Automatic annotation (TrEMBL):
Molecular functions per Gene Ontology: ATP binding
Name of the protein in its database record: ABC transporter ATP-binding protein
Key word Nucleotide-binding present: yes
Localisation: Cell membrane
Membrane-topology annotation of the record: Peripheral membrane protein
Principal subcellular localisation of the protein: membrane
Pfam families: ABC_tran
Residue intervals of the ABC transporter domain: 6-229
CDD domains: ABC_DR_subfamily_A (cd03230)
Key words of the record: Antibiotic resistance, ATP-binding, Nucleotide-binding, Transport
């Protein structure tokens, strides 16, 4: 049986007195696109940051292709690409310079032209990061996550703030990743239903549902994934956890 690409086993993460992840376990199969869903504050970003090695769990274990993302951080960086919600890149560097910089971190990176074409930023190559629109900065972050030919990709709020055309361009980019394992954090149920093979729904730091989008809908007798989300969490996608 094929080993999972990502394993999260009984993970707990706390911030002072607040529990962000409470005994979370999941398996992600090689080549699978897993949607990570939940209201704001449910633990989604903490989960993907823990998988990426940016946070150390208080308890439990995480493995990415059999590697510990904290203890074996350098090895994990060779196989994992990460796009987080907020791009923190050098404002004075151009798009091309940022891509070349990130290419230098990898033994066999994608050609710069290919990475830029994947997110339709070829014509912005000579533009400084600070002069890009928010959507263009988001697309550049995706290009940088993919430039090293990662086997596992984390995409946190992939299309937040993008116009419909830009969203669909990035959906096509994700659909082109046919051999990569993808963890997609999203509030957009249309995006999840189109791109994800399976979803895991977090609420208050715990997994409350898991399965294909259709399975989750059927399990609660809902008419749509939006309705299933609302029934399982008591809140709409994108709503804060404490807003109920």
């Amino acid at each position: 049986m094929t080993e999972p690409a990502v394993v999260v086993d009984a993970v707990r993460v706390t911030y002072r007195d607040a529990v962000a992840l409470d005994d979370v376990s999941l398996r992600v199969r090689p080549g699978e696109v897993l949607g990570v869903l939940g209201v704001n504050g449910a633990g989604k970003t903490t989960l993907v940051e823990t998988i990426a090695g940016l946070r150390r769990p208080d308890a439990g274990t995480v493995r990415v292709l059999g590697l510990d993302p904290v203890a074996q951080r350098r090895a994990v960086r060779r196989v994992l690409g990460v796009q987080l919600q907020e791009a923190r890149l050098h404002d004075a560097l151009t798009v091309g310079e940022l891509v070349d910089l990130h290419r230098a971190f990898h033994a066999d990176p994608r050609p710069a032209d290919e990475a830029l074409a994947m997110v339709e930023l070829t014509e912005r190559r000579d533009v400084r990061f600070e002069r890009l629109s928010g959507g263009q900065q988001q697309r550049l972050s995706v290009a940088l996550a993919l430039v090293g030919r990662p086997r596992v990709v984390v995409l946190d709020e992939l299309t937040t703030g993008l116009d419909p055309r830009a969203r669909r361009r990035l959906w096509a980019t994700v659909e082109s990743l046919t051999s990569e394992t993808v963890l997609l954090v999203s509030h957009a149920m249309d995006e999840v239903e189109r791109l994800c093979d399976r979803v895991v729904l977090l609420d208050a730091g715990r997994v409350v549902a898991e399965g294909s989008p259709a399975e989750v809908v059927d399990r609660v007798g809902a008419a749509s994934l939006d309705e299933a989300f609302l029934r399982l969490t008591g809140r709409a996608p994108g709503e804060d956890e404490d807003a109920a």
